[in-house]
Task: structure prediction
Amino acid sequence: MATSNEILKKNCPTLAGTIAATLKDPASDRFAEDDTQFLKFHGIYQQDDRDLRKTGKKYIFMVRLRLPGGVMTPEQYLACDALASRHGNNTLRVTSRQSIQFHGVVKTGLGPLMRGIHEAMLTTLAACGDVNRNVMAPPAPAWDGLGEEAREQARKLAVALAPRTAAYHSIWVDGVQLNLESPEQRDFNDPLYGPAYLPRKFKIGLAIPPLNEVDVFANCCGFIAIEKDGRLEGFNLTAGGGMGRSHGNPETFPRVADVIGFLPADKVVETASAVLTIHRDFGDRTNRKHARLKYILADRGVDWFRQELESRLGFQLEAARPFRFERSGDDFGWRRQADGRWSLGLFIETGRIQDTPASPLRTTLREIIQAHRPEIRLTPSNNLLLAGLPEASRTPIDAALKGGHVRRETELSRTRLNSTACVAFPTCGLALAESERALPGLMTQLESLLQELGLGGEEIGVRVTGCPNGCARPYLAEIGLVGKAPGRYQVYLGGNQAGTRLNRVFLENVRDSELTGQLRPLLARFAAQRQPGEQFGDWCARVVWPEQAQPAG
Ligand code: SRM
Ligand code: SF4
Result:
């Protein structure tokens, strides 16, 4: 039987619902349940502040941009910064798909915020919902020639795969209710998605080896650039990656995408559209927990998928070309771009751009961006890159960051620089444990343990999520912590820094206060027994996994 979401979408393919009417109703601080589902396609989540639940529900909204490749102009960043003060909670949250989220928006602020976003020539359409989500592309400057091509592909994909409903513009820009009685709206049928859109979300990422910042294997559909002598030859297609799972439901699982074949660069949009339509036509519309593209690959196999894809494309993919990823995560500090200008990678702990008593980070960034006008690139590890800067900007920017007490890459451990956390409390309705608010403290504990064991200079990728949905892609991390209950986590070990291998559960239910104690014997053994240059995740996969597989006793 079709899920209630399927029935909703089919009954209202414009995705307009009664959003416009409720928006105008001053008596209501929230939207009806059905409209909350439509709102997602508009990039909006209705939430409530979970810190306040005991004293009464306060409805707030999260608004997410669709920002292909995480690229913004300085003017767009500054507009978002001002909008966060006016209508949000004075923070900007860089997401794990290179976007920006506004949190804590109240209903009366929603219309003005959405108009402000539009006026900044930005959009939130399809940032959430059963459609193609924000397309990821490499932010790194060292590969700028190819990087620019990949970011251009991301922009093209975002446009080609955007839903065509007029409701978004009508509600948020024109401020009017969509005339659902007009013939074109009554019979509206999205040309790509059809009346019921996708069975579930769909995600695309592009990567340029040897860097895998976008975690291409966690995406439904991925494009790995194949380059020869600095020239782009085409892409290897990947399909069927995804992270989400549910505790206690073994039928849900994270999955690393399969490599399907090679295609020329001018076929990217066509191929992604065909992959998307396979999801549209074969995805499980009876069970949202089994509806992602990864389950089609898992259930029907790669050969079936390739055949189905080629029959839709009308051409055959070539055999996949060799490639090698060395690392995911970000580079920090100043780097010279291919065009001779400079970019600066800044670590934004947990992606939250805010002023705190320790550091007026948001103000400092605003002032730097106002003065130097860099291009902004958001990274998939929730960090920020200021790009396209002249040599003359380096010294004043360094001074401004110092004045703003912004901790730089040279002052932070390599492990902290490679740590990420999802949002979780207080805004995420699905959080079981703290994540963003817990990460800094957990990292301090881990850092002192590493220091004590002589591993202070080590880089170990750590990713934390407040529930098993996997928004920080914890199942690819060397150490992944997945929330089970308040203060309790599953511990996963053995992912690699290239982002090509899933980790495995090591401990099922550990208190936050006992985490470092539980990891100590293992890290001590790693320090003593590792092979030269061996990273912790690789050591775990080599030593700990075989030990775990041995029968007890
Ligand atoms: Fe996510 C749901 C936040 C990237 C898998 N995710 C949510 C919601 C909207 C909670 C909800 O449904 O009520 C979270 C909002 C929290 C809040 O208050 O802001 C949320 N997800 C995020 C972000 C902001 C986490 C972050 O720390 O940056 C990321 C936004 C990315 C963006 O800009 O589009 C985010 N989510 C991811 C990723 C990572 C990725 O895409 O590379 C994943 C794993 C990859 C995947 O999709 O398999 C991810 N989010 C999920 C899932 C599990 C889906 C599944 O297949 O089971 C859910 C739950 C759901 O959809 O039902 C979810
Ligand atoms: Fe919320 Fe879970 Fe995603 Fe964290 S992983 S943001 S707790 S849905």
Notes: Residues 50 and 366 are 29 Å apart (CA to CA). The chain has 17 helices and 19 strands.
